[in-house]
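Hi there, hope your week has been kind to you so far. No rush at all, and the record is pasted right below.
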Amino acid sequence: MRDFGAALAGLEAASLLRTRHPVAGEQGAELEVEGRRLVAFASNDYLGLASHPRLIDAVVEAVQRFGVGSGASHLISGHHEEHERVDAELARFVGMPKALTFSTGYMANTGVIPALVGRGDAVFSDELNHACLIDGARLSRADVHVYPHADLDALEQALVRSSAPNKLIVSDAVFSMDGDIAPVRELVDLCERYDAWLYLDDAHGFGVLGPNGEGTAAHLGVRSERIVYMGTLGKAAGVSGAFVAGDAAMIDWLVQRARTYVFTTATPPMLAAAVRASLEVFRDEPWRRQRLRDHIALLRRRLRELPWALLESNTAVQPVVVGDNARVMQLMQSLWERGFWVPGIRPPTVPEGSARLRISLTAGHTTEQVAALADTLLAIARTEAVAA
C-alpha cells in the first residue's frame, strides 16, 4: 500500500506541495483571505464579470423560473431551452455554424478529442499545451506526436511523416502559463496543406481578444472551416463551463459520441442564462477589454528593470520566471506579506527549472493597484540585490 504521508513529505521537501487558501465573499480584484484583504493577481476573471450585477440578476431570475438543478443528462430530460438558446448565441458570437456547451473546459477537451480521432489516427500536440489537452489526446488512443513549442517546422515534418487517415493539430490559443499567442494562421495553413483539423483551446482568449471578445482567431483575423474552437466560460465570461464550436455536422457528432457530454448531468439552466448575460456585457462594455490592455502595457513598462525574466506576452497572463521552486514560493510569500496575492507556479504545471510568478491582470484592477504591484516587486528585487 502506498505511503501517502511519505509522498507528501517528498513534495514538501522539493517545494512542490500545493495548498489552498479559502476566499471569503465575492470574487474581485481584492479578496478576503484568511482574515486579510489582499489585492489579487491570481484570477482568470479577466474582465471582472464574476460578480457583475447583470450576471447576478440573470441567475436570480433563472433560478426563480427554472429552479436549481437540471435533473438529468442532456440526452435524457436535462436539456433545457436555456441550453438551446446559449448554444445558438455562442455559435453566432464566434461566427461558427453551431456550438455545444460542456460542464467544464476539462470535460470539453477530454470528451471532444477522443470523439474526433481514435486508434490509427494522429494527434499533433504543442509541448506546452494544457493538461486537459494532453489527457484528451491520450484518451483518444490515437498516435500522439508532441512538437516543440510553436515550432512550425517540426510540426510540418511530423505531418509529412504521418500516414494517418485523420489528423488533428491540438493547441492552446493563448498559453496559460506563458501568455503567448499560438501562430493560428500558420497552423491553419498546415491544416490546409496536410488535410488536418485544428483543435484550438481558447480558454484564455475568449472574451478578451477580438473586436468584441470573439477570441484569438478573430483577433488574428483568421477564419477556417478546419477550426474546432473551444472557449471556456469560467474565465473572462465570469460563469462556469465551456463550449465547442465549428462545423454543424461535427457538433451533431459530438452530441452522439463525446462521452463527457453524453454521460453527465446537464449544467443548471441558470448558468446558461448567466452566460447569455456575459455575451451582452462583452458587447456593451468594451471599456473592460481596453482597461485590461492598458494594465498590460503599464505593468510591462514598470517591470523593464526586473532582474527576473518577464516573458513576452501581450495578454492578461504576465509570467515572471524565477527558476527555483523554493525561491518562487519565497517571493510569493514576500508579496503576500505586503498585501498582494500572486501565485507561484511550479512543475508539473510548468517545465522543470522554470518556476514562476503568474501575474494575472483583470479589468477589475485599478491603475494604482497595478502600479503598486510593479513597484513592490522592484523593491523586493532591490532589497535582495543589496543583501547579496
Residues 367-387 form the longest helix (21 residues). DSSP finds 15 helices and 15 strands in the chain. The mean pLDDT is 96. The CA atoms of residues 54 and 323 lie 42 Å apart.
